[in-house]
UniProtKB/TrEMBL annotation:
It is a multi-pass membrane protein. CDD domains: P-type_ATPase_Ca_PMCA-like. The chain crosses the membrane at residues 186-211, 223-242, 373-397, 427-453, 930-950, 997-1018, 1030-1051. It comes from Vitis vinifera (Grape). This is Calcium-transporting ATPase. It catalyses: Ca(2+)(in) + ATP + H2O = Ca(2+)(out) + ADP + phosphate + H(+). Belongs to the cation transport ATPase (P-type) (TC 3.A.3) family. Type IIB subfamily. It is an enzyme of class 7 (translocase). Signal peptide: none annotated. Keywords: ATP-binding, Calcium, Calcium transport, Calmodulin-binding, Ion transport, Magnesium, Membrane, Metal-binding, Nucleotide-binding, Translocase, Transmembrane, Transmembrane helix, Transport. NCBIfam families: ATPase-IIB_Ca (TIGR01517), ATPase_P-type (TIGR01494). SMART domains: Cation_ATPase_N. Its EC number is 7.2.2.10. Pfam families: CaATP_NAI (PF12515), Cation_ATPase (PF13246), Cation_ATPase_C (PF00689), Cation_ATPase_N (PF00690), E1-E2_ATPase (PF00122).
């Protein structure tokens, strides 16, 4: 965990105060957590313990299981010591299935097994024990490849028959996963709610007493109807939860499905990690995950981070003396290729993954805050329920409670014990049902529902969410720090300008303008100093040629091929002695190549940096010229190309004495390639055009109050040109310091200066990953909510530090992806903007649901409290309240939490971290609707018999009609108010409603069920059929909520949140206490 995250978490858990201004002092309670990213375990425990929860197993299902996390760490430490025991256990578990699981530990000579000369047991034993002597006995990596029928340069054949044969023999690169919870488990969890259990007990007692006193035919209705309603609530809740869990399972599958390149049939092929087979040859570079167990074939400065397996944060260097590679580890530095020797369950990583269940649960800030809201409402509801219980019991036993026909219910010495118990159970049932309605268990879970929906939809918008909380935090983002290459640009690069000596080659691929010596050195430098590859199929021409590598390398390789470079021939004739992989700090990469008894050291990288190390250059005639004053010419050429938004790359070399070369392999690995006294061969300008939708996306962000900043390793002039084209820099006049700044100028500033400058920066050129981290830290300290993009391994700290880390799905390394919160699958900045829309949509949908639910809560509680205190009876009974709870909790959440994002969301400012969940606009809407519902329904309760012209009816029937009317009107008010909740701050609440099929479906189902309940299920709900006139009146009562909402929205509200008016006296009192 980083320092700032710990500090923030600690302050949140401590309940202290933050903020500098006296008026802005915020006193933190356990639920006031601005960010849960990197929050401490103590903080998470504190808010859970502070929450009033009726069903903990359901409420905290999607939060981090702290106990399981500890168990996972213990299991990780045990794996290496107990690998064989775990393998044996899995063997028994998978008995009957075809499994290739290894139990042996002894090393035996290779013996034919099936179609291969070595068996899976021998391979796994050698790799697991890192048995170097066994490897030598098999003939080293070359002998092992022969046993596995693999060519170390061209890989496996790659045909389906060969791959199938290898999977059958050595297993597939998958592992048995723990099955997700069944639907029955979700039913069991939904059943755990304390209030529902009490209601079931009450229903059972009521059922027994009813049957005893009234017989089976009539006596089962009261208890049976409550039991049925409770089971319906449990069943619907379980279905909703189960659907969410399936969505999360599908997303987890996507996260595990890493794509990588292997060499098959002499060409690089992109496959899923699950399709790797024993015998595959896999290239490795910085940031990659080792996809399976294997042996190093070739490597240069290869360093592996094995902490994911060993638990020790130690970088292990790999060479031919330590060639064993473990699945699941990360490449920390260098490059290499490996031969796969073990996959799936025959690797320690596979065992670990099979032994633990992946817990994707985590806290999100909204979940924490909504637990606080739910706890507060729950305490109020509990107090109301206890009050109602006390009032009803007192009125009952003092003879002030009457039946619907007017007779006193309890007469001392007259009423039988059974009748009294039955009446008391009904009173308790009503009180408990009030608790069910009052405690909004669905409020925190609505976050999970809307996140599950949003995450599924975001996949279609090319964004894979790795951390739930990032989805909602993105809605609060105030700034996006974006890479240039591939994110703002297309990442389709071509060489459009080239200088050799002082001569500009036009067109740049005209080889006739180059001297053979220059061409030869250029070809050698480009072919050897690359991680890319050029594959020409047999009999295929240039049009069928395949070039692989990074976009920059592909562009340079394609240019060199047009100049006549024979890639395969040069690689075969040259012996690569040492490689310095491209380094984002030094902005260059180098290679030492031996050929014809001499050593050439080739460098390629940022043009002005490589130029700074050059003392001579080769002109187009192949003559060596001193750099001298010509350096000004080259610098001017670089600036001109950069001003045309070209990426400038210089290619240079120098000779080195073979006698001075380190002979020993270990010494060579430690050897630092000389980078001084270079000879400049060429400077190329690479065009990478802007993405078509970027300018519009940047404008949308600006209008939404989100500032876009570009951070790039490119030349500042190139960055400036692209920023002007994208709209990040509004005009040429804005292209001055500190709006545009170089990384080195920013990093030398003091911490306080960086904070002041950071907010003004729009473009940072020639930045290193550490500069990006410093900028993120400075912006966060200044109060910004920062989203940052990154694709390289060295971007991991910045991705981890930012509020939202966005890694690139195409160019991003596995290390970057694991450090990020969201993966942008198409590397497109427009997709980042879509994520902002979805983030705002999550927050807005939760607010809609809160407004709707609190309106129902307030109205139902006030109606029942006033009625019970005044008349000793409640118009809404237990079954009716459970139906209202179902509409409000599960169906309401489903309808409102799944509203798709609208353009209107991007016309607002970002939501602040500390802004109240219930805004003044929501309070206004809520109060107006609740007051209307309470007023109308209480008038119906006390004057309904006369208003509805029921005086001629019997008292019992008139009361039943009145109560049925109250119940029907109340439910219809909620149905109509659900439309109002869709657009809390807009006059037209019907925009886009017909496109939201789920919302319309739920409204239709709710209305249809209400008709069925009133017209056909009166025995269960204690209602009677209503005439069409009363139905019209009920509809009219509900319909009034629409014009009322429009009138309400014309009432202005103060900007200062209402909560501050109420909490200020308490803050001042506590401020005195802290002082």
């Amino acid at each position: 965990m980083n320092g700032s995250g710990d500090m923030e978490a600690a302050s949140a858990s401590g309940g202290g105060m933050v903020g500098g201004d006296e008026d802005e002092v915020v006193y933190l309670d356990p639920f006031n957590i601005a960010t849960t990213k990197n929050a401490s375990v103590e903080t998470l425990k504190r808010w859970r313990q502070a929450a009033l929860v009726l069903n903990a197993s359901r409420r905290f299902r999607y939060t981090l299981d702290l106990r399981k996390e500890e168990e996972k760490e213990q299991r990780r430490r045990m794996i290496r010591a107990h690998a064989q025991v775990i393998r044996a256990a899995l063997l028994f578990k998978l008995a009957g299935e075809q499994a290739t699981i290894v139990l042996g530990t002894t090393v035996s000579p290779p013996s034919p097994v099936g179609d291969y000369l070595i068996g899976v047991e021998q391979l796994a034993s050698m790799t697991r024990d890192h048995n170097f002597s066994a490897l030598q006995e098999y003939g080293g990596v070359k002998g092992l490849s022969d046993l596995l029928e693999t060519n170390l340069e061209k890989g496996t054949d790659g045909d389906d028959a060969s791959l199938s044969k290898r999977r059958n023999m050595f297993g597939s690169n998958t592992y048995p996963q723990k099955k997700g919870r069944s639907f029955l488990m979700f039913l069991w969890e939904a059943w755990q709610d304390l209030t529902l259990i009490i209601l079931i007990v009450a229903a059972a007692a009521s059922l027994a007493l009813g049957i005893k006193t009234e017989g089976v035919k009539e006596g089962w209705y009261d208890g049976g109807s409550i039991a049925f309603a409770v089971f319906l609530v449990i069943f619907v809740t379980a279905i909703s939860d189960y659907r969410q869990s399936l969505q999360f399972q599908n997303l987890n599958e996507e996260k595990r499905n890493i794509h990588l390149k292997v060499i098959r049939g002499g060409r690089p092929v992109e496959i899923s990690i699950f399709d790797i087979v024993v015998g595959d040859v896999v290239p490795l570079s910085i940031g990659d995950q080792v996809p399976a167990d294997g042996i190093l074939i070739t490597g240069h400065s290869l360093a592996i981070d094995e902490s994911s397996m060993t638990g020790e944060s130690k970088i292990v260097h790999k060479d031919h003396k330590a060639p064993f590679l473990m699945s699941g580890c990360k490449v920390a530095d260098g490059v290499g290729t490996m031969l796969v020797t073990g996959v799936g369950i025959n690797t320690e990583w596979g065992l670990l993954m099979a032994s633990i269940s992946e817990d994707t649960g985590e806290e999100t800030p909204l979940q924490v805050r909504l637990n606080g809201v739910a706890t507060f409402i729950g305490i109020v509801g509990l107090a109301v329920a206890v009050s109602v219980l006390a009032v009803l019991l007192i009125r009952y036993f003092t003879g002030h409670t009457r039946d619907s026909d007017g007779t006193v219910q309890f007469k001392s010495g007259v009423t039988s014990f059974g009748d009294a118990v039955d009446d008391v159970i009904k009173i308790i049932t009503i009180a408990v049902t009030i608790v069910v309605v009052a405690v909004p268990e669905g409020l925190p879970l609505a976050v999970t529902l809307t996140l599950a929906y949003s995450m599924r939809k975001m996949m279609a918008d090319k964004a894979l969410v790795r951390r739930l909380s990032a989805c909602e935090t993105m809605g609060s983002a105030t700034t996006i720090c974006s890479d240039k290459t591939g994110t703002l640009t297309l990442n389709k690069m071509t060489v459009v300008e080239a200088y050799v000596g002082r001569k500009k080659i036009d067109p740049p691929d005209d080889s006739s303008q180059l001297h053979p010596d220059v061409s030869s050195l250029l070809h050698e430098g480009i072919a050897c100093n690359t991680q890319g590859n050029v594959f020409v199929p047999k009999g295929g021409g240039e049009e069928k040629m395949e070039i692989s590598g990074s976009p920059t390398e592909k562009a340079i390789l394609a240019w060199a091929v047009k100049l006549g470079m024979k890639f395969d021939v040069i690689r075969e004739e040259s012996s690569i002695l040492h490689v310095f992989p491209f380094n984002s700090e030094k902005k260059r990469g180098g290679v030492a190549v031996q050929g014809d008894n001499k050593v050439h050291i080739h460098w390629k990288g940022a043009a002005e940096m490589v130029l700074g190390s050059c003392t001579e250059y080769l002109d187009s005639n192949g003559c060596l010229q001193p750099m001298g004053e010509d350096k000004e010419f080259f610098s001017e050429a670089i600036n001109q190309m950069a001003a045309s938004s070209l990426r400038c790359v210089a290619i240079a070399y120098r000779t080195f004495d073979l006698d001075k070369m380190p002979i020993d392999e270990e010494q060579r690995d430690q050897w630092v390639l000389p980078e001084n006294d270079l000879v400049l061969l060429s400077i190329v300008g690479i065009k990478d055009p802007c993405r078509s939708g970027v300018q519009n996306a940047v404008r949308i962000c600006t209008n939404a109050g989100v500032k876009v900043r570009m951070i790039t390793g490119d030349n500042l002039q190139t960055a400036k040109a692209i920023a002007l084209e994208c709209g990040i820099l509004p005009s040429e006049a804005d292209a001055t310091e500190p709006n545009i700044i170089e990384g080195r100028a920013f990093r030398v500033l003091s911490e306080r200066e960086r904070e002041q400058v950071a907010k003004k920066i729009l473009v940072m050129g020639r930045s290193s990953p550490n500069d990006k981290l410093l900028l993120v830290q400075a912006l966060r300290k200044a109060g910004e909510v920062v989203a940052v993009t990154g694709d390289g391994t060295n971007d991991a700290p910045a991705l981890h530090e930012a509020d939202i880390g966005l890694s690139m799905g195409i160019q991003g390394t596995e290390v970057a992806k694991e450090s990020s919160d969201i993966i942008i699958l198409d590397d497109n900045f427009a997709s980042v903007v879509k994520v902002v829309r979805w983030g705002r949509s999550v927050y807005a949908n939760i607010q809609k649901f809160i407004q709707f639910q609190l309106t129902v809560n307030v109205a139902a509680l006030i109606i029942n409290v006033v009625a019970s205190v005044s008349s000793g009876d409640v118009p809404l009974n237990a079954v009716q309240l459970l139906w209202v709870n179902l509409i409000m909790d599960t169906l309401g959440a489903l309808a409102l939490a799944t509203e798709p994002p609208t353009d209107h969301l991007m016309e607002r400012s970002p939501v602040g971290r500390r802004e109240p969940l219930i805004t003044n606009i929501m309070w206004r809407n809520l109060i107006i609707q609740a007051l209307y519902q309470v007023s109308v329904l209480l008038v119906l309760n006390f004057c309904g018999i006369s208003i509805l012209h029921l005086k001629d009816e019997t008292r019992k029937h008139a009361t039943q009609v009145k109560n049925s009317m109250i119940f029907n009107s109340f439910v219809l008010c909620q149905i109509f108010n659900e439309f109002n909740a869709r657009k809390p701050d807009e006059i037209n609440v019907f925009t886009g409603v017909t496109k939201n099929y789920l919302f319309m479906g739920i409204i239709g189902i709710t209305f249809a069920l209400q008709i069925i309940i009133i017209e056909f299920l009166g025995k269960f709900t204690s209602t009677v059929k209503l005439s069409w006139k009363l139905w019209m009146v009920s509809l009219a009562i509900g319909l009034v909520s629409w014009p009322l909402a429009i009138i309400g929205k014309l009432i202005p509200v103060p900007e200062t949140p209402f909560a501050k008016f109420f909490t200020k006296p308490f803050q001042q009192r506590r401020a005195g206490h802290w002082a």
